[in-house]
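User: My collaborator sent over this chain with a note saying "see what the structure looks like." That's all I know about it. Can you take a look?
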Amino acid sequence: MLSYDSLLEQAKERGMPAGKLRGAAREYLQVLALKALYGIKGSESLLFLGGTALRLGHGLQRFSEDLIFDAEGLSLSTWKRVIEETGHRMSGLGLAVECKAGEKGSLLTGDLRFGGFLQAYRLTEDHGEKLRVKVEANRPAYRLTDEPRIVAGFGEMVAVRFASTGLIFAEKILALLGRGLGRDVYDAFFMAGKKWMPDAEVLAAGGAPGPAGKAILAKIQELGPKKLHALSARLEPFLFEPSHADLVARAPELLPPLVEYL
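Assistant: Without extra context I'll predict from the sequence alone. Here is the result:
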C-alpha cells in the first residue's frame, strides 16, 4: 500500500482538492478493489458503470463512493464467491476486511468494510471506524454493451470492463428521471457536454418518455428552482470545485442548449 506521503502526492497529481484526503483515500481503495475483483473468475460478466466509473474512466471531477455494475447472467452463488474472494485478496494488503453479499430481486448486493485503512492515513482518531464500500450489480433484461478500459493511478494499472458510454448515459438518465438527485443532474451535464449518445434500447426498456433531451428537461422543470438549489447545496462537498455545484441550481438555464442534440 502507498505511504501517507505517496497518497498525498497522488491526490495532487490527480487534481484533487487539498483538504479532501479522505476522498483520495477512498478512490485509492476503489482502485485496489477493482484490481482484486477483476482478477477473479466470474467477474468477466460485470460491466462497470455509475459515478465511480465516470470518475475513474472518464475524468469526472466528483467524488463517488460506490462500485456499481451491470451483470450478464451472474448467479448469486458466483456473486458471493467474487465478493468473498475480493475481500480475501484485499486482506493480503494488511487490511481487516468484512464482506457480505446477497440479492434483492434482480439486484446483487455487496458490502466491503475495511478496518485500519482510515487510521493508516491519519483520517480518523476512532480506532474502530471502518471505511465502507458498497458493491452492487444489476441484472437487467436489456442488451449490455461494453468498452474495456485501463484504470491507472496510485501506482496501479487495472484492466476494467467498463459499460459503454451509451449504456452509462442511458442508465444515468433513467436515474435522473427516477430519483432526481443532484449528482444525476451534474453527471448529465458532464455526459451531454461530451455529446455522448444514450442507448435508445436501454431508455425504452426503462420507460423513458419520448426523446431523451425533452425527458431530461421535463424532469428539471418538475424539480423546480427550490429543489434544485437544495440539491446543489448537498452536492457541493463532493465536487473538486465546489462552485460547479451551481450548474445544478442553474440547470433550467444552462442545460437546454447542451441536450438539444438528444
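A starting point for your reply to your collaborator: Residues 228 and 249 are 5 Å apart (CA to CA).
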